[in-house]
Amino acid sequence: MQGVGFRPFVHGLACSLGLAGFVGNDTAGVFIEVEGPAEKVERFVSDLGARPPPLAVVDKVSVEAVEAAGDRGFVIVPSEAAGEHRALVSPDTATCEECLGELFDPGDRRYRYAFVNCTNCGPRFTIVRDVPYDRPSTTMAGFPMCPECESEYGDPTDRRFHAEATCCPACGPSLRLLGRGGAALDGDDPIKAAAALLLEGKVVAVKGLGGYHLAALASSPLATEALRARKHREDKPFAVMAADLAAAREVGQIGATEEELLTSPRRPIVLLRRRPGAEVAPAVAPGNRYLGVMLPYTPLHHLLARELGAPFVLTSGNVSDEPIAYLDGDARRRLSGIADAFLAHDRPVHTRTDDSVTRAFGGREMVLRRSRGFVPEPVPLPRPLSRPVLACGAELKNTFCLAKGKRAFVSHHIGDLENYETLRSFEEGISHYERLLDVRPEIVAHDLHPEYLSTKYAVRLAGAQPVELVGVQHHHAHVASCLADNASTGPVIGVAFDGLGFGTDATMWGGEFLVADLLSFERAGSFSPVAMPGGAAAVREPWRMAAVYLDLAFAGDPPGGLAVARDNAARWEQVLSLARSGTNSPLTSSAGRLFDAVSAALGIRYRVNYEGQAAVELEQLADPEEHRVYPCSVGEGEPFRLAGADLLRAAVDDLSAGVDLPLIAARFHNGLAGAVVAGCERVRGRSGINQVALSGGVFQNVLLLGRVLDGLARQGFEVLVHSRVPPNDGGISLGQAVVAGARKAGGQ
Questions:
Q1: Does this chain's domain 6-76 share its CATH topology with 497-518+523-722?
Q2: Do residues 53 and 93 make contact, with C-beta atoms less than 8 angstroms apart?
C-alpha cells in the first residue's frame, strides 16, 4: 500500500545495512534498487517482508539481479505516475500513540492541533484524488509545508519522513466554529466552545474524516430527543463515542475481542451489550440491549472527547435516508435545520465515507458495515479473474465492487439507492475507484431485480460502453460472497436468509437453501411462499404479514382477542382480501417477512421506521436462557418447503396461554434454528455435501446464528460464516463479482 511510510522504512533499512541505491513509488507499488555485499542485500530482502511498518501489507517481493551501478548512498527518488495502477492506497487510520503524545504535550509545537498525523496514522483514502499517493494528489495540495514541516518531511530519521499529510498550525488546515448561517462564532478555541455548546444540550455538526457527523451529549434526554426529532430518525440507534476504553466500559460490556476491535487502527463502531445503569439517554438506542460504541480516531475527536469528559452521540450528518454530507456548503445547507453550530475545518474531503460497524461473535469480528478504516483494502479472491469486473451491488446497503486478477475491491458503504444524492454518490464512487485502481471493467454484474437502480445503472452502462452484462440471482450472490469471504469455491449448502431478493421464478425469495458454487446454483428448498399484501407496504407495516400468516396458520380462524387484529381492525379484512385474491400481493419465501409476522403477532412492532426493526426488536426481547423449540415441518417435495406458519402458530398458541413474551421470542428463534438444521440435513442426504455457508441479513441476528451453528455442529457439518464482508446486502457486490468472473471463465 502507499501512504504507510514504506519508502522511509526502506531508506532506514538500507542505510542501517550500509547499502546504496534508491526507492520510489510507481503505479504498481514500490520499486527499490540496492547494491552492496551479498549477505547484506539478502538480509535487506528478508527484512522487507518480515518487519514492515505498522500499516504496510507486503503482498509479494520480486527480486531481480542487475549490474552494480557504483552508487554512493541511498535516496528516495520522485514518484513515477506512468503505467497501470496496481499500488494500493491505505485506508484512513486512527491517530497513533506518538501523535497523541504530541497532541497533549504543552511543549510540542503541535499541542492541541487537530490535524496531527504521521506515516503511521491519519487520513488516506478520504483525501486521495489519484495515485501515486503524493501530496499533490491529495486534498492537502492546498497547504504548502512550512520550513519546519519540510525539514521533518526530508529527514530520513524523522517519522514524518515523506509523510504526505504532514502539517502543523503554521501551515496546515485549521478549525473554526460556525453558526447555522455560516458566520464564525466568538472564541479562541473552537474545541472548547463546541464542547460548551454540547454540555448545554445543543447539537453540533462535526466535520470528520469522511464527512460531517452530528454530535449531542449522550446522557442528555433533551439533546438526544432533539437530535432524533430534527434528523427525522424515529428509532434507529445512534452511535456513541467514548474518550477511551475506561469510558467505554462505563456504558458497554467489553470482552477481549471487543477491546481488540475498539482499539484497532480501523476504529469501527463496535456493538456492545449495554451496561446496566449506563448514563445514556433512552433516545440513544430505544429498546435495544446493545450500544454502538467507538473510540476517537482523529486528533479532533480526542480533543473534543477529553474536553467533554463524557460519552457523546456521533451519528452520520444527514437527514434520515440521505447520504452523509461532506462538502462544507452542502453540509450547512442540509444540516442547518438540525445542528445549532458547525465545528468545521478547511481540509476538503474527497470521498464521503461512513463509519464502519462491527461486532464480536465467537471470538472473531463480524463486519456489519464495511467502510472507513477498511476501504480500499482488497479482499483476496479464491480464484483469479481473467477479465476485470464491476459488480453493481443491491438496492439497500449498497456497495459496488471492482475486481481484477486476485483482488476484489469492495467499496465503502454507499447506502440505500432511494434518492438522487445517493445514486450520484454511487456513480461518483465507481468513477473514483476505476481511476485509483486503473480498472476498466469488461464485465458488469448486477442483480436480477429490474427496478433496482443499480441494475438500471448496469444496463445503461452496457448501452454506452463495450461491456458484457451478467445478471446474478440475489441469494446466489449472498452465498458466493460468503464463499469468497472464506477463500472457498464450494460447492456448499448455501443458506441465504434475508428480507427480499428477486428469484428466478419472478417471486420474491428470502428464505433459501441452495446447492451452490461460484459458477451456478440449484434451489434445494425454501420457506413456503406467502402473499405480501400491498407489496412494499407489507415491509413497512409488519402487521400485514401477521394477518397473512395468521390466516394461513389457523385456516382462516385465528384465536380471538389478539391485539394485532384489534389494533389494525380498520384495514384487517381489506388486507386479507388482497392477499387471498393475489391482487398487489407478490409471493415471498422471505425469512425476514416471517420475523415481521411473528413480531407483529406478538404485539411488538406493527410499523417499522428502519429496515429490519421488527426482527431486531424480536431478537432483543428473546430470553437467551430459554431452550424450548417450536416445531417447523419440512415438506417432502423438491425443492422442499419449510412451514413458517408452524412457528407462528406455536408462538400465538403460547401467547394465548399467557406465556411470557421473552420465552415465546426465544422459542421462535430456537425453532427457526432447528428448521435450518433440518433443511441442511435434507440437502446433505441428497447431495452428499457437508459444508454449509450462512449468509443474508437475517444472520446478523447473533442469537439465531449461535443456535444454528450449535445445531449444525452437533450434526457434524462444517460451517462458513462472514467475517471480512457483511452478511447483509453490503456483501452482495463481492458475490456478484466472483459469480460473474466464474461464469465468464467457464464460457457462460
A1: no
A2: no
CB atoms inside a 10 Å sphere around CB 246:
8
Q: Are 22 and 77 in contact (CB under 8 A)?
A: yes
Q: How many residues does the chain have?
A: 748
Architecture (CATH level 2) of domain 6-76: 2-Layer Sandwich (3.30)
- Going by their DSSP bridges, the two strands 492-502 and 691-695 should be labelled as parallel
- Count other C-beta atoms under 10 Å from residue 721's C-beta: 20
β-bridge pairing 691-695 and 718-720: parallel
Residue 55 in contact with residue 93, Cβ under 8 Å? yes
> Domain 378-486+730-745 belongs to what topology?
Nucleotidyltransferase; domain 5 (3.30.420)
- Give 333's contacts (C-beta < 8 A, 6+ positions apart): none
214: buried, middle or exposed (CB in 10 Å: 19+, 13-18, 0-12)? buried
Q: Helix and strand tally (H, E) in the chain? A: 23, 26
Pairing assessment for the beta strands 587-588 and 468-472 based on DSSP bridges: unpaired
- Letter for the amino acid at 638? E
Q: What is the dihedral of CA 479, 484, 487, 491, to 10 degrees?
A: 30
Contact 530, 552 (CB under 8 A): yes
CB-count exposure of residue 12 (10 Å: 0-12, 13-18, 19+): middle
Phi (first) and psi of residue 718, to 5 degrees: -95, 130
pLDDT confidence of residue 748:
66
Under 8 Å between Cβ of 122 and 95: yes
What cell does 331 get? 453540509
How many whole angstroms separate alpha carbon 69 and alpha carbon 483?
A: 49
Place of cell 549490474: 67
Under CATH, to which class is 497-518+523-722 assigned?
alpha beta
CA separation for the pair 530, 582 (Å, rounded)? 10
Q: Domain 175-345 classified CATH 3.90.870.10?
A: yes
> Contacts by 381-384 with C-beta closer than 8 Å and gap 24+?
381/405, 381/406, 381/407, 381/408, 381/484, 381/738, 381/741, 382/483, 382/484, 382/487, 382/488, 382/489, 382/518, 382/738, 383/489, 383/518, 383/738, 383/741, 383/742, 383/745
Per the CB < 8 A criterion, the answer to whether 646 and 610 are in contact is: no
Q: How far is CA 102 from CA 111, 113, 173, 748, in A?
A: 6, 9, 17, 58
Find out whether 120 and 55 touch, Cβ atoms under 8 Å.
yes
- Domain definitions of the chain by residue range: 6-76, 175-345, 378-486+730-745, 497-518+523-722
Which segments of 605-674 are extended strands (E)? 640-642
Nearest to 538 by CA among 485, 497, 590: 590
Would the pTM count as exceeding 0.90? yes
pLDDT mean by block of 10 residues, the chain; 748 residues: 74 89 78 92 87 77 88 83 68 97 98 96 94 89 97 89 94 96 87 97 97 98 96 94 97 97 97 95 94 98 97 93 91 95 97 97 96 95 94 97 96 91 93 92 97 96 94 98 96 97 96 97 98 96 98 94 96 96 96 98 96 96 96 93 98 97 98 98 97 98 98 98 97 98 82
Rounded distance between C-alpha atoms, residue 119 and residue 264, angstroms = 16
The answer to whether 387 and 741 have CB atoms below 8 angstroms apart is yes
